[in-house]
Amino acid sequence: MKEQIISESLPKHIAVIMDGNGRWAKKKGAARIFGHKNAIKAVRDVTEGCAELGVEYLTLYAFSTENWSRPKVEVNALMELLVSTLVSEMKTLMDNGIRLDTIGDTKSLPEKCQRELAEAMAKTKNNDRMVLVLALSYSGRWDIAQATKAIAKDVAEGKVDAENIDQELINKYLNTSGIPDPELLIRTSGEQRISNFLLWQMAYTEFYITDTLWPDYRKKDLYEAIVSYQNRERRFGMTSEQIKS
After folding, report:
1. What are the pLDDT digits (tens) for 48-84?
2. Which residue, 27, 46, 59, 219, is the most exposed by fewest CB within 10 angstroms?
3. Residue 13 annotated as binding?
C-alpha cells in the first residue's frame, strides 16, 4: 500500500481521533487502562509513519475537555500514562526530528504533566521534520469560546475594530494559530462523529473512518487512509470542471 502513496500530494496536516482503547481492553477481559497502555505502540507507529512520509503536522486527540468527567481512577491513570510516555518516547521524537506542541487548556492538567510537557517541548523545539500536536484538555467549542472572549476583550480595549473581525482574525485567536487546517481526519473504532474536535478547522477536511480499534492501528492502516484521501476530488465549493481547468 505504501508504494501507492503519491508523495507530491500528501496531506500537510493529518488529525486523528484515537478511539477504541476501552473496547479493545474489554475484548481481552481487562480494565480500560490496559487499552490505553497498549495504545502507545499505535501512537509511535503512526507518528513515525507520518514523519517518514513527509507529513508536516500530526495532531492527536489525546484528552478532551469532556474526558474529565470519566471515573477519577481512569483520569489519574491517564495523566500518569501521559507523563511516563513523554519520558519513554523522547528518543523516538529526537531520532525522527519531531517537534512536540500542544493545543488545549493545558493549565488544567496536573502540575507534573505540565512540567513534563514543558520539558519535552523545550527539548524538541529545534526539530524541524514534523510537528506532533497533542490535543490535551481540548475541545473545539472550548477553543472557539476562548478565542471569542479574547477578541471581545481586545475590542473593548480598542486593540481590534469589530468591523475588522473576519475568518483570518478569528484563526489568529484560536489555539491552533499557525497550524494549517487538517486535510485528513482519521477516526478509529467505527464511530461516525467528530466528538467536539477541531470544529472550526475541519470545514473542508476529508474524513476517513475505520473499524480498527486504536491499539491495533499501524502504519499499513495509515497508508490505506492516505491512499483513500489521494483518490478523492476536493472541490472546496467549486465544480469538478473548475477544479480540472
Report:
1. 999 999 999 999 999 899 999 999 988 888 888 888 8
2. 27
3. no
> Domain 2-138+175-230 is in which class?
alpha beta
Of the residues 45, 67, 171, 216, only one is catalytic, namely 67
Contact residues for 31 (Cβ-Cβ < 8 A; gap 6+): 25
Annotation-wise, does 66 bind a ligand?
A: yes
* Phi-psi category of residue 139: left, alpha or beta, with phi > 0 → left and psi -120 to 50 → alpha: beta
Question: Binding residue per annotation — 200?
Answer: no
Domain locations along the chain: 2-138+175-230
Could you identify the residue written with the cell 470519566? 70
Tell me whether residue 67 is one of the annotated catalytic residues.
yes
Nearest-angstrom CA–CA distance, 168 and 173? 9
DSSP state letters, 117-170: HHHHHHHHTT--SEEEEEEEEE-HHHHHHHHHHHHHHHHHTTSS-GGG--HHHH
